[in-house]
Automatic annotation (TrEMBL), chains A, B, C, D, E, F:
Task performed by this protein: Phosphorolytic 3'-5' exoribonuclease that plays an important role in tRNA 3'-end maturation. Removes nucleotide residues following the 3'-CCA terminus of tRNAs; can also add nucleotides to the ends of RNA molecules by using nucleoside diphosphates as substrates, but this may not be physiologically important. Probably plays a role in initiation of 16S rRNA degradation (leading to ribosome degradation) during starvation.
Protein name: Ribonuclease PH
GO terms (BP aspect): rRNA 3'-end processing; rRNA catabolic process; tRNA processing
Gene3D superfamilies named in the record: GHMP Kinase, N-terminal domain
Pfam family membership, one: RNase_PH_C
Residue ranges annotated for the Exoribonuclease phosphorolytic domain, each copy included: 11-139, 157-223
UniProt keyword list: Nucleotidyltransferase, RNA-binding, rRNA processing, Transferase, tRNA processing, tRNA-binding
NCBIfam families: RNasePH
Length: 252, 252, 252, 252, 252, 252
């Protein structure tokens, strides 16, 4: 049996608390089981140098874990003087995923930074960061839309992410830390509301995996993401209605 | 009038939530008005190189603000690749203050790191970090005491800190950010339960200050710290009884 | 038409030159079209601290591009004082992929570092690095096997990698730089000789992709990898025979 | 008895040599006993980015010790690649203290950097740096005033600093290294010519200190600073007359 | 006997392959025995800040060794986060030497960067870098001359470099690694086509050296450089004719 | 005419003050005209890792300029976070030169660090550092010899250094900053008491130089170094007698 009495295709208890920070344009505390991530969205009326003067906006992300988010304390990256490869990989992933559902032209020449700070980690922090950041991003974009009367709402579809993996021989949805550390195959799936893939990262940690296993894992991921997007809609309330129902196979 | 309808010698609403992290040996969320700091205590069975083999322990602290803890977003120190002077100054202060009420000999050859992560900042983050860290530290020390049956409880007195300052011509207790940014004189006071000073840092930001003004500010600080220590005792519950009532003028 | 008159499922001209460095335990110059990467394998009789005393070995990789490997000159990472996120991501991928076909126990307490230095870049440098590194690794492992009379040959299967992607609406194999920069979907596939996945990284750069498109891309990747592994066998000569024919679904 | 046969309220032999550097706009070698600090003032016709276009000037400080300024050699911070927390704390203190007696508006849009390089250290290097830097600063400001015919002399009062502390039970003025390393309480006092505090930093290194002890220490500090300011006036010669006699309680 | 059956005044087998990189404005692979260096020249239409607006150009160099260019693997400088003193010294030397035969005024406000990447090292990498870079530079300058119709060809003379040294008591030309590591005296000579010195760096590694020994070494160096310049001319083909035959004693 | 009414082959006024630091094992303030360098020698009873257990000692050097040692202020290398190429090159030169006259075997397993801190710079700081460091080194070695009763005095010869150069068409000895910045050719000469070369670094800054010019410059250097060594002997007093009169052409 899995912890919490979950089925193999079950998510952990999920909670999305919004507007947790009085300064940020959007903010969320997302809890998936014991994994807790604060996601804040900051809007700035400027873009990185490589985008200047093109009338387009930018969305980017940063990721960090508090030193004692995990079982034993990790040294701060600020103290070590540099970001680890893992951190860079994760924040590049989050930013890339979020940009895939933002119409940067419609956003106008401004940038939004999503800060994902992991308060407590129990597996799946990068996927929780994506799912939570999407909600914070939507709040921030809505604020811009209200202030600047944009003609098009710049978010083009819902977006959420989940981990799947093979533990022993069982494909499982939403691995916690204990499961993750025993997983033979590990995969992160990022999908849109229209059911298409934005990012797929699978790794045979302990052994390679077959095409059939891949298919099974993708099915689990799809199921989990549908549930996550339902929770996002609830958390967004009226903002949810502004996001178009993406259509499979259509370019956004 | 001050925000919250406070008097000049009033603290902001104070809330200390304990055991907020499932891994840390001690953890606290301290809220003073809109200032919110997570303090976690990590116990490790090793000491820094300069203390090895002396049978003594060590207590140290690290301090950081989430990028959007403030009105506008700050670049992460990990991204910049180094700690700012302000951060170093603050974490040295927190560690030094906490060590002043710990009997390092009684602690044995182990170290405790207090991580102070500011989730939201509205003035007084360094003093809130000290006040909150003391509680997290006491939980962690208690855990050690229970496991290792120490003959002496290694904490020798209570410890709390508060800011005071002169705004316009009015000496005020517990400045929020708006008051702090207008303050002509700014002072941080760290005191023990026995009413003695552990640290005193006063700066004439806009003008120097007289001996008489100093006396007034110290009076305010003393009043505030008594209230903070009362709140610490409540948060600590039975652990509170293990901490000796320090006596003025006695070496600890 | 694609450059070189290739079909959509065709590889670029491939050339693997072995033993290009007189000091390294294994060395390869791999050329895929205009992409050229030097891969050298260094054997050291020591392991990283986290593996000490476990009787197991380690395989890791580093990746770098010469400043003028690309159309315009890039600043050296040594001059900037830190590795980019892209570099870290790539070298983590290469190391992880290679370790998946090495029996670290059989290798014994020694480590092998694969240095992948891109002399000229025209798309697909990370997959060429994996494919070339596998050959350099096999030479180095063979050298160890000869010197230390290992009872088991520590490489458990072949390994190669290729990029696939969707340009316009056409799924293509082995994208060059020009194709890659226009690709709407981009995927790197790492597979073993037994036809199973070791790593799968797909990104919807310009739009999300459907399950059907994914299937198409995986088919292309599989075809390309079979051809790459044939070329590896030829380059390895008699060493090729020492590597077991991996069997799908079996743990290695 | 203290070294040099000093009384508890006595300063060490003090020597201020001016114009020791042929390039700097102001320069001083200050010796307090065996503590020797070179202070140079550099004037530049530019201000930091955050002050641009405001018509105001800036005063800042940097502090460093030669590697063999102390009993055993310290690694250079340039070799370690970063400033220590101690160095940052000290140079922030020196700059803040000096700015408190400079009318930045009257200085005009230019900046003055005080470099404090400790040639030999025997306790009290940060306070000697402040006292010496004030003299170097006054020479530099005078040079500006002569060249640019400023309508107001931008220095508004004298400024000096001294350490006091409690060794055993005796409150002492101007601790040397040996006394400092045994001190139970340690305090740095920065005062103006009008007898008001600019900065007060007291630390209970070995035990907390009472209000009564604080009062005693402040008295010692005040006595020492009066003597230091007298020496500064002598070193400044005619420039001394240009500095207003600050009045207690008045904003400058 | 020396390796390759060389005489004391003989160069190792020399090979200069040109246009080895499809992107760079000039590129060369120089091989001197087992020492192999890739030299690429990059032209950029901008100059460093200190030269802006002066109508002059700039020539600079960077030097690096692949990790396994030597018998044992060296850590990458990018991984260590900083350049070694040796690297800095070498790249300063290469840039300075090349600039001595370039008329920066005639080059116009553009800069040329020579990247010297050592693929395999067997002694004499810095002198091979200079000799090879000169050829890459000439190709790049020729390209500029053709595009911009410069009135004067900006290269003013040929330039090559070679190492000489005393091994045992024998002065030798062009030391390989084994000879270099036993050398008592080690010298690098950089000369122009007109037979004058541009740079001379001699070090008594194991013992000082006399004036007479110096004279002997300079003679060997001169002989070697004449041969190197002959090879450069051949590699340059028609470009060789555009470079003036420098005249001894004349300022260029 | 040159400044100070010097002849072309004249040194600037030279002053060597010894024992300027109360902690260091050897210390010197060397002044050559307006160039002033503090050289301190630190003895430590340990050697760098690469020498451990070989019974040999080590001599090394570090070099730094105070920010305002020059006409305009330079940023501190500690603030920039890394040493410049120029600094590394100079400190490598100083260490290498000093080691050439030290019998590291006779020194025993200990190391001596020479810190050269330039207080004021007016040309020739690296050669002044070598000349001054030799005296500080001799004091430190003498101290070791007295304490440890070494059988052989570990210094094998005198050592001094001077700059020479060609300004206009005139070869000059000991260039000051103004001369140095106009020099067409610039050379640093390091020689032993026995009149042999330890290091020779000549650069054609503005034009190449002929063999005849080289000979002229070497003659000037030799003359200057004889005078410097005479001054070193005077500064060393009785220690001077312990240093063997090196013999030309003999290995030390």
């Amino acid at each position: 049996m899995r912890s919490n009495g979950r089925n193999d295709d079950g998510l952990r208890p999920l909670k999305i608390t919004t507007q947790t920070n009085k300064y940020a344009e959007g903010s969320v505390l997302i809890e998936m089981g014991d994994t807790k991530v604060i996601c804040t969205a900051t809007v700035e009326e400027k873009v990185p140098p490589f985008l200047k003067g093109q009338g387009k906006g930018w969305v980017t992300a940063e990721y960090s874990m508090l030193p004692r988010a995990t079982q034993s304390r990790n040294q701060r990256e600020a103290a070590r003087g540099k970001l680890s490869g893992r951190t860079m990989e994760i924040q590049r992933l989050i930013g890339r995923a979020l940009r895939s559902v933002v119409n940067l032209q419609a956003l106008g020449e401004r940038s939004i930074t999503l800060d994902c700070d992991v308060i407590q980690a129990d597996g799946g922090t990068r996927t929780a960061s994506i799912t939570g950041s999407f909600v914070a991003l939507a709040f921030a974009v809505n604020k811009i839309a209200l202030q600047h009367r944009l003609s098009v709402f710049p978010i083009t579809d819902y977006l959420a992410a989940i981990s799947v993996g093979i533990v022993g021989d069982r494909p499982l949805l939403d691995l916690n830390y204990e499961e993750d550390s025993k997983a033979k195959v590990d995969m992160n799936v990022v999908m849109t509301g229209s059911g298409e893939f934005v990012e797929l990262q699978g790794t045979g940690e302990e052994r390679p995996f077959s095409r059939k296993e891949l298919d099974h894992l993708l099915g689990l991921g799809e199921k989990g993401i549908l549930e996550l997007i339902a929770a996002q809609k609830e958390a967004l309330g009226p903002i949810a209605l502004k996001i178009p129902a993406g259509q499979p196979g259509k370019e956004v």
